[in-house]
Write a structure and sequence with these properties.
3-stranded antiparallel β-sheet, Rhopdopsin 7-helix transmembrane proteins, alpha+beta, Glutathione S-transferase Yfyf (Class Pi), Chain A, domain 2, about 60% helix, 3 domains, glutathione transferase, 4-stranded mixed β-sheet, 9 strands, single chain, about 625 residues
Length: about 625
Amino acid sequence: MSQEFYPYLMITADIILVTTLPLLLRLLTILLSRNKQFIGLESDFYRCLTHILTVDFVSALISILIVEPATYGIFRDFYENNSGWLSKIVIFHSSILSTLSVYFHSIIAFNRLTAILFTLNYQKIWTPRRMRYLHFTGWFLSIFLSLPLIWPIRGSCAIVKSPFGVRGLSFVLISSEANISYQAPPVVIAAFIEILILISYCIMVANVSKYKEIAKAVIRTTAASVFMCTSGWFLIIFVAAASYYGHAYNGDLFSLEVYYALFKIGYAVNGSITSWVTLIIFRDALSKMSQRSKINFRFDLEFSRVSIVLAYLKLIRAIQDQPDQQLKVVKDDWTCPLYLFQSHAISISSNKRGSDAFHLSILSYSPIFSFSLPNFSLQSPLCSLYLVPSILYLLFSSLPHLLYKPTTLFLPPPSFISSMPSYKLSYFPGRGLGEVSRQMFHLSGTPFEDHRVTMEDWPKYKDTTPFGQMPVLFVDGKPLPQSFAIARYLANLFGFAGKTPFEAAWVDALADQYKDYLNEIRGFLVVAYGFADGDKEKLKKEMAEPAIHKFYSILEKRAKDNGSNGHFVGNSLTWIDLIISDHIGVLEGHIPNAISAFPLVNEIRKKTTSNPKLKEWIDKRPVTPF
C-alpha cells in the first residue's frame, strides 16, 4: 500500500476514536446506573461488558488527550516537557489496558461457552462472587504490574514525522529492557488469550444443534460476544501476515508509516467495536432504558402563559393545568435540533410578581449529566448563557445515535419517548395485595397515580371494577384486574419477572404457592386484623404456625437450591422476592420471630429491603395496619 495513504489512514483511526467516545460515555452511564434488570442483560454478561467499556473509555481518553495531539505535533512543547510522566500513562494504555480488555473478553467467551455446553447449570459455575473475584484479579494484576512505571522506570519521547509532515512526538521508556518488558509479554499474552477465545467460539459453533434448547438471551449475548472479539482477531492476523511476509520474501508488506497507521486503525476499532455492537444488538433494550431514564436536563422559565406560546417559537402546542401532565414537542416553526428532547412535566403557579411561573422539564436520549438552573426570563442573557451550551453538549452526546439514525434531527421524537403510558393503581389504603405493584413502580422510577379507595367509598366504586375486586391497574385508562396479573404485567415491563422463561416460570410457581399459603392462613389473618371474631392464639397455634412452617420450608429449600445468593429465583431481584419480604413484615406484626427458623429466607428479606430505592419507599409510604 502506497505511503500517500498514510495521512488518510491516521485520520480514519482518529475519527473512529472521536465518534465512539460519546457513545462509550452514554453506555457506561446506563450500565453504571445498576438498572440491569430493566436493561434485560444477563448479569454475567452485564458485569463483563461494564468492565470492558470502562477499559475502552479510559483508553479512548488517553488516546484523544495525549497520544493523538502529540503525534500531530499539537502543543508539542507541553507534551515534550511532560513526557517523563505522560509516557508512563501511554505505555500503561498501550500494553496493560489492552491486555486487560482481552482478559475481560476471555471471561465472556468462557462464560458463553459454559452457557452453551451446560445450559441448566452454568449459572452455578459463574456465581456473582466468582465473577467479582475474576474482575478484581484482572484490575489488581494490572495495577500491580504497572507499579514499576511509577518508580524506578523513567519515560521520555522521540521525534516522529506526523501524517502532515510536521514534527510529532512518540512516547517511549528510556530503558530498552523496560520497553521490551512492557511490549513483548503483553502482546504474547494477548495473542494466546485471543487464540483461546477463538477456540471457545469454534466449540460453540460445533454445538449449534443445541441452540434450540437455549434461551434467546443466551444466544443474543453469545452473538454479541463473537462480534466484539473480531477486531482482536484482525490484529493478530494483520501482525502475523506482515511477519510472515517479511520472513518469506525478505521484505516489508507495508511501509513503516502505513503499517503503523493500519495497526492504529485496528487498535481503534478494537477499542470501539464493543460499544457499537452493544448499540446495534441491544438497541431495543437501550431504548427501554432511555424511556425510563430520569430527567437529565432541567431548567425553569419564568414568564406569562401567553408569551410562551407566542414568543417561544411555538415550542408547545398546548398547556394543561394538571401538574406532571405529559405533553409532546411539535415541529411548529422550530428549526433547532430540539427534536432530541421532549416536554415531560408542566406546572403553572403564581409567583410574587403576579405572573405565572412555568416549569418545563426536558428528557433527552443521552442520560449523561444533570443541569439544575435558576429561574430566568427568555429576555435575560442567562437564557443563552445556560441554554445554548447545554443544547450543544446534549447534541454532541447524542452523536452516536445521530450517526446510526441521522433522521432523528428531522423527525419528531420516536414513539418510545413521545408516548409514555399513564398508570393508575387503585387499591385500599393498605399494603396487602397492591403493595408489590407499588414497589415495582418505585423501583423502576415510573410515575403512577397511587389511588387509595377508602372502605366508605368502596361500595360505590365496586361496580366500576371489572371483577368487583381490587387492586385494579389502569394503563392509559384501560383496566387490568387481579393482583398477580398486575404484578406479572409490571414485572415483565420493568424487568422483575426473571431473565429467562424458565426463571419466570419459577417465579410464577412460587407466587401460586404463596396464594395456596394465603388460603391456609387466611382464617388467622382476618381475626388478627379484627375483621372477624375468633380465638387468635388458638388460630395461631392450629392454623398459622403449621402453614408458616410448610410454606417457608419450601422457600428455604428453594433459596438453597438457588445458590443462597439472596434471591429465590436467578441472581437478580424478582417480584417474588418483593412479595415475600413484604409479607414477612406483616406476619411479624402478629407473630414475633415468625421465620427465625429460616435463615436463608431472612437473608433474602434483608437483601431485598436494603435496596436503596425500596428502602426510600418503605420509609415514606403511609403507615397502615395491613
